[in-house]
Amino acid sequence: METLFDLPTLWAFVIAFAVFAYVVMDGFDLGIGILFPFFAPGPERDSAMNSVAPVWDGNETWLVLGGGGLMAAFPLAYAIILPALYAPIIAMVLALIFRGVAFEFRWRDPGHRRYWDVAFTTGSVVATLAQGITLGALLQGIVVEGRSYAGGWWDWLTPFSLLVGVSLVIGYALLGATWLVMKTEGAVQDHSFRLAGKLALGMIVCIGLVSAATPFLSGAYYERWFAWPQVLFTAQVPLLVGLCSGTLLVGLVRRWEYWPFLLTLALFALCLLGLGISMFPHVVPNAVTIHEAAAPHASLEFMLVGASVLIPIILAYTGYAYWVFRGKIGHEGYH
Amino acid sequence: MFDQFDALLLARFQFAFTVSFHFIFPSFSIGLASYLAVLEGLWLWTGREVYLNLFKYWLKIFALAFAMGVVSGIVMSYQFGTNWAVFSDKAGPVIGPLMAYEVMTAFFLEAGFLGIMLFGMGRVGRKLHFAATLAVAIGTFISAFWILSANSWMQTPVGYGINEAGQFVPEDWWAIIFNPSFPYRLVHTVLAAYLTTALVVGGVGAWHLLRERTNKGARVMFSMAMGMISLVAPLQILAGDMHGLNTLEHQPAKVMAMEGHFESHPDGAPLILFGIPDQEAGTVRNAIAIPKASSLILKHDLDAPMDGLDTVDRANWPYVPVVFWSFRIMVGLGFAMLALGAFSLLARWRGKLYEWRPLHRLALVMGPSGFVAVIAGWVTTEVGRQPFTVYGLLKTAASASPLEAPAVAASLLTFIIVYFIVFGAGTGYILKLMAKPPHRGETGPQAGPDHPIRTAGITPAPSVDPARTLGVEA
């Protein structure tokens, strides 16, 4: 047995961190895309879009780092997972194309702005759905033979993966709505509060359904969650989810402005932690562990030198940019 | 078995299609980022307003091209895994870290400073703004550095071992990064990007000169572009020649395919100018050739013996007709660029640079030729590497994902439709911007309340006007 903090484990944490950073940052801007049709055309939509325009592509860089990092640190996992999830991943990158160019094109071509707005929403919904399906399909297991994927090209499509896909759409929409609660005032904020209330209920139901289904997907998941004595630790996760959910609902009713967004992020963090408990130490459930999939020591070490310097710089910079943009949209305090 | 072959061919076509489309945008934005840095530097140095106007004129075009480069690049970072799983598993330990470094070094710089570059003029001070422009230009170069290092390693792999799982294991990172073909490929590709941009700028300048000969901005951009082409076209031919000699040393079969040398020539090989290569028969039909000239170019000796593809196992032949023709398209365009540069020097010497309409027409026609040459060169080097992904070590047929043909066919069709819609629209918007003549008081991407605040990146500090950012009054 390897020690806890050897290089592969460290890299598993780095990639998990990149995935979480991506969800934190791109989640709310995809969510705003999902909620776009609920806003009136004109200034309301323009300001919703512009509230995320400064950060969207920096956010998506984390997705590239997640994908590139997986290939570099766990090439075997990358080689098994991506073909297994061929259709949803292709759908995701294509949806991100539509969504990304819409930021720029809708201004260049007012005559077709309606179409680029549709592209923005459709792209956001499809990209999110595809990410959720990808996650669900990974969790339910992938057929592996030797060093490659051995299943069919529709294996990813199951009720469980669709459930996770829809859950993620609701979750990102909730992030988008609570982001707008935090960043706006007046009618838009009222509208966002109402949306966030419904979405929060939806998200809590979804977390419940996915959590209830997961331990029964395979024996290992059940073991990892319910075996004694680690159940003492794992039981904290659903307890915290319950606590955050309750507080979120109270916060939305009492019209807290900042906490709903932060609590939604906390829910996402807990879901990721739950995912980690289910999967660790596997990277492909029941088939490949992170140590089996890890790149040779020389690869991991070479990248770690760069990552340990560059990722903190990127984080500092990103944090600074968000700090600059803090406060309400269109309010004096925004300066 | 037949299905497997089909899926492989479809996967190869899909990769070629998406990478070619993607490559168009960086090959333009690498050069354009540097051109913008030069324009801004000249403006700061001379204080002449025309440079500022040109800077803002090209900045709007840069914003669009960069956005399309970003989104088409996301596709590439996943396509290795979706379609080339075995390659990713085996070469990932070497290729992956190079690409991870590209993300961490180049994307960071670009995403960080693009915002200031696009919208920060007049808000962060001139010097800081210029520093941001330089950072973006350097970022595009660093990106080219890593991705070409990875590509070159696939052409000339060194510094690796092979473990029991059949994976390439890095042993000497310095040797891997600076592998034998990398310096040549980097110089040749970056010069190609500069040349491509100069041709586009020259074509746009020529278009406006043909309509309005006195337009100051059009004159300056045309003059700068023609100067650049006069300088870089001969350098590029020289760099290409050296790159070719390097290829001869490390990948002789590729050069044989480029030259159409199916047979060995023990006493001086001919330079085949044109002909119809026949892969099956192993010969070039209707060849028009200069005797012994190929030996002179490649070995600097008229009588030097040259091996042909008959010395290579037929299973390891690249597909000669594609390599043969793409190479000729690239070289032919290279010499046309040289001629354009010479023509412009003559015009300049006679003091007729802004008057000679045939020169302007030629420059206009040559405007997109850089893209064609870049793609042709790319096809030459990539198809010439076949039938391997990692040259001599890993066959393309053994690199692909275990996918079914209908899955790849469906994704390929979707890529084609989406790319033509999205990048077709984007190219249309770029052409619309180019069709407007540059004028005094040119506005940057930030003008007007009805414009996007920025395309990409993270905008720091006071670089963005909050009122405009939010589309509402502060």
From TrEMBL, chain A:
GO molecular function of the protein, one example?
oxidoreductase activity, acting on diphenols and related substances as donors, oxygen as acceptor
Topology with respect to the bilayer: Multi-pass membrane protein
Tell me, what is an example of a GO biological process annotation in this record? aerobic electron transport chain
Q: What keywords tag this UniProt record?
A: Cell membrane, Membrane, Transmembrane, Transmembrane helix
InterPro entries in alphabetical order: Cyt-d_oxidase_su2 (IPR003317)
Give a Gene Ontology cellular component term annotated to this protein: cytochrome complex
Q: What's one Pfam family the UniProt record gives for this protein?
A: Cyt_bd_oxida_II
Subcellular location per the Swiss-Prot or TrEMBL entry: Cell membrane
Give the stretches traversing the membrane: 12-40, 86-103, 115-139, 159-181, 201-222, 228-252, 259-282, 302-325
Instruction: Indicate whether Iron appears among the record's keywords.
Output: no
Family as reported in the entry's similarity comment:
Belongs to the cytochrome ubiquinol oxidase subunit 2 family.
* Protein name listed in UniProt: Cytochrome bd-I ubiquinol oxidase subunit 2 apoprotein
Specify the species.
Answer: Microvirga subterranea
Automatic annotation (TrEMBL), chain B:
Q: How does it sit in the membrane?
A: Multi-pass membrane protein
Q: Which InterPro entries match?
A: Cyt-d_ubiquinol_oxidase_su_1 (IPR002585)
* Molecular function, one GO term: metal ion binding
Q: What keywords would UniProt list here?
A: Cell membrane, Electron transport, Heme, Iron, Membrane, Metal-binding, Transmembrane, Transmembrane helix, Transport
Give an example GO biological process.
aerobic electron transport chain
* Spans through the membrane: 20-45, 57-78, 98-121, 128-148, 191-210, 222-239, 322-347, 359-379, 408-431
One GO cellular-component annotation of the UniProt record comes to: cytochrome complex
Where is the protein localized? Answer: Cell inner membrane; Cell membrane
The ranges of region (Disordered) come to 441-474
Family, similarity comment: Belongs to the cytochrome ubiquinol oxidase subunit 1 family.
Task: Write the protein's name.
Answer: Cytochrome bd-I ubiquinol oxidase subunit 1 apoprotein
- Gene source species: Microvirga subterranea
Q: Tell me the lineage of the source organism.
A: Bacteria, Pseudomonadati, Pseudomonadota, Alphaproteobacteria, Hyphomicrobiales
